[in-house]
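Write out this protein's structure.
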Amino acid sequence: MPTLALTLIVISLAPFALYLALKRPLIFPFGLYLMMVPFDGVIGATKVTAIVAGLTGGALVFNMLLTRRVLAPPKSWTGWALYTLLASLTALWTIDSLNTINAVVTLLQLFIFYTILCVYPVERAGLRIAGATVVASGTFISLFGLLSYAQGFRTQEDRLSVTLNGLLIDPNHIAAGLLLPLALAVGTLVETRNIWLRLGSAVSAVIMLAALFLTGSRGGLIALAVMLLFLAWKTRYRLQILALMGIGGIASLLQPTVWDRFADKGLGAGSGRLFIWNAGGLALKDHWFAGAGLGAFPAAYNHELLAMYQPVFQGWSRPAHNAVLSAAVELGIFGAVLLLYACWRTWCDARGNVIIEAALVGLAVASMFLDVMLFKYIWLALSMSALVKNAAEPKFLRGMRRQPPPAGSGKVSARVPAWRGARLSAAQRKYP
């Protein structure tokens, strides 16, 4: 009976879903994709997220063909295109063919989806809906994790995590994935004048902060502090943000999971990261020019481990726990430079939107302790930067754009071409 009821609900909602997919793809299916991104670590094995991403990309492309409007991608796209190209070429000389092929396939899928969003003519209303959905997704996974934590499901060291179908999300990645929705929630909380929007943002921020603290992620906490301090520095809401940080810090003492991990002498050397980075430094000497191959850092680490001494053995096939070191070993020094350049261009694209800037700064800090480049939440942040740029300064490759009529003319707004690379005036952007 529940299956029949679910089938009837799906059939009844299908026409609305189809309408949104054709007319408002940023609401659906992109909204569904955003809700699934935080759970990708546990449902990715079933390819559900990949299927939804494919449907979303198809809906966005169809909408661009239907409206005949396509944007030139922002400058950051070139950096990520070069990074993806070099990473793909390393499959020709990798030391670990299987892992490199899998990593290249994942990276190409992420880059193609990112490219579609880079050329999509988003409007401010659609961007706000996407931002609200990102906050909702972070709140949802936080509630899920808090409920599991309250029921007694915890990882080692009493840390919050999420598990489905026997698959577990690394608590460190949960914390890093919450940085973007937290930036959006806190930014909305301090700047909006709408009481209901402020209340909703406050509730979401409290739930996500609680979940992030309980993950026990020291890197995530450092990234959160840097992100909030950046927001305080760049906005006039310094006292409010600093007060929020103080309240959050005091409240975290009620369940000091993360502070216990900072104080635990057994977790010295960054929980063994320093030993891993030492091995990565030796691997870099061998692969500094061409790289070991995308996804081949564990193999390079194993090779160096046989020729070095670790005061505390960290095990075999360990990831780099540092995105820059990982890129340098896997793609060579030029690959690491490309990664830094692409990140800098992405941050430049977000200039003017301090919330996205802060989120990118926080994720940059988190990436110093994690390998993040093959995770959807990092590419979502890159996509949000591109969408912000496109909403503020659209550069049309082709299509028509309505121009506001002269004041007092009484005429209907005319449609004028938006030429390649043309920047529309502020008045024109009010008439999407």
